[in-house]
Here is the input.
Amino acid sequence: MTRESKQDLAGKVFEMKDLVEYQTGTVASRMIINNKAGSITIFSFDKDEGLSEHTAPYDAVVMILDGECEVWVAGVTHAMKAGETIIFPAHAPHALSATSRFKMALIMIRGSEDAP
Here is the structure.
């Protein structure tokens, strides 16, 4: 898929894993939605790349689109592969590491569970 703008993607069918290419020795990303309600970002990780442990003030959903990784959430390790999804609860420490090249979608939900 060509590098279309966010507006060019609206109303079109696409595979999220095709929106970002692998890059040797690094992590690449592409934000496709970002507004006050939340964001959706597609990432590609080369083997052995990852994100160090951190927290976020909002719930996050991680969908593995291609490849395999290890994910840590609040001290628990999960081996994940394409087609699997995990929720990182707000404020829970989490990290991930590529056991092979992998791609993921990160969906951040900004808001309160108390909101109507």
Remarks:
- The two ends are 38 Å apart (CA to CA).
